[in-house]
Amino acid sequence: MKYTVWQEREKCIGCGACASVCDKFWEMDSDGKSKLKGSKKKGENFELIIDEKDLSCNKEAAEKCPVNIIHIKDEKGKKLI
Ligand code: SF4
User: Fold this and answer.
1) CB neighbour list of residue 68: distance below 8 Å, 6 or more residues apart
2) Which of 44, 49, 53, 54 is spaced 20 to 30 A from 60 at the CA atom?
3) What is the CATH number for 40?
4) Which atom of ligand 1 lies nearest, measured to the CA of 9?
């Protein structure tokens, strides 16, 4: 199963939580907001397809985000967070 992770990047407050719990995928960028590594801009959001093995790392990042702007859905479009 593949998953889609997306970030409402405009709303990022730059707390660094995602990058601290999942640095394989998240890093702080020079504008003070975090960046989902390898993601592509889609509308207002930044999006990346991930494998099942990388779900827990990204899920933890999403759970730790204080403003809830990291989301994950599965292949069927079911939103996990
Ligand atoms: S945890 Fe949320 S608010 Fe904090 S840097 Fe990551 S995306 Fe931005």
Assistant:
1) 62
2) 44
3) 3.30.70.20
4) 7
Number of domains in the chain: 1
Distance 76 CA to ligand 1 centre (A): 26
| Confidence class for position 2, pLDDT limits 50, 70, 90 | very high
Mean pLDDT of the chain: 98
18 close to ligand 1 (CB < 6 Angstrom): yes
Task: Please indicate, yes or no, if residue 8 is contained in any of the structural domains.
Answer: yes
Question: Would the CB of 62 count as within 6 Å of ligand 1?
Answer: no
CA of residue 24 to ligand 1 center, whole Å: 15
pTM of the complete model: 0.97
Task: Flag whether 81 is in a domain.
Answer: no
